[in-house]
Write a structure and sequence with these properties.
Oligomer: single chain
Number of strands: 6
Number of helices: 3
Strand order of the largest sheet: 1-2-3-4-5-6
Shape: globular
Amino acid sequence: MRVIIVLVWVLMHCALGKGAKDDCPAGSEKDGQHLFYPKIKPYPHLHCNKDFTVYSWNDKDHVDLVRGDKPYCANMDKVLSMLKDNDPCKQPIAVMKVDYDCK
C-alpha cells in the first residue's frame, strides 16, 4: 500500500510540471522567496515566485504571464511584441512560450 501511495504522489508532482518560479532564468536576483530578472531595480523586469511570473514595467503596472500552472499566452505575445530585440527579458519570455506550449 505504501508503494502505491508514493507512486501516486510522484505521478501527481510530475504531472503538475514546473512551478512559475522556474520561469526566471539563472542569474536572477533573489529577494526572499522572489526572483527578479535581470534585477529588482531598475524596471522593467520579470518577477517570479512559486505561484506566478509577471512582467513589471514599474512598481504599479505589470502583466501576468503565469499564475500557478496556467500560462497567459496572449499576454506573453503582447509583451514580446512590445520588447526590443536587445531587451534581456525577451529571450526568457520566448522560452516560457515554448515551455508552456503557447502557439
